[in-house]
Amino acid sequence: MVKCYYTLLTILLFSACAETSKPKEPEWVDLFNGKDINDWVVKIHHHEVGENFGNTFRVEDSIIKVRYDQYGNFNDQFGHLYYKQPFSHYHLKFEYRFVGRWVPTAPSYTLLNSGVMFHSQDPKTMPKEQDWPISVEMQLLGGLGDGKPRPTGNMCSPGTNVVYKGILDPTHCIESTSKTYDGDQWVRGELIVLGDSLVTHIINGDTVLQYSKPQIGGGVVNGYDPAVKVEGKLLSSGFIALQSEGQEVDFRRIRILNLDAQQ
């Protein structure tokens, strides 16, 4: 009996140790709580960090809404809503849809156009007159209803470059292979970002674009602090931001799986 007791005790202790040493599985976390944007930071061109000019970013019906009803002339007031902390290796999921109106005084290319910025500089490092953050953008486009293809989930590079198909590609925007999505339907976007290595864009479950080695370089960004724009610096982490550039758009169900623990 004594021998059996100690054998059983040994088995139980071994099982307990094995259980405690088992690595914890990463969990999906909601970046947007469906109630407010208190965990987010606004930066709009011509305005100081934290000033939500015109109530551009607002929450209604568990949706982050980008609206311009309190604007006059758009005046290149491109805006971004940044989550409060940076990330490096992660899987991001979100849903978006184009709604409402486009501001006619905004540049014509912003029609049915928005985006999710990532590996972005800290908004606190952006001067008042900096137009775009130094970042990589998963560009979101809506179909124009003319029957012509207009893919979404593209890559644009304000102040950055990426390696695409094995070469450092200075092209500002690289098209994805996605379908065209017309109207105000919800579209599911995903980003899998592995530090300064591979980046994958996914639209409605389909992989539509891959590239690697995101790094600082190139043009497009204006009014930046030169100390921040270090040419050739690989971007292994940064902030995630939702874009406003003249088209009304909705975002919801923004979730992240932090993969840093698996590195």
UniProtKB/TrEMBL annotation:
Gene3D superfamilies: Exo-inulinase, domain 1 (2.60.120.560). InterPro entries: AL/BT2_dom. Residues 27-256 form the 3-keto-alpha-glucoside-1,2-lyase/3-keto-2-hydroxy-glucal hydratase domain. This is 3-keto-alpha-glucoside-1,2-lyase/3-keto-2-hydroxy-glucal hydratase domain-containing protein. It comes from Chitinophaga terrae. It holds the Pfam family 3keto-disac_hyd. GO terms for molecular function: hydrolase activity.
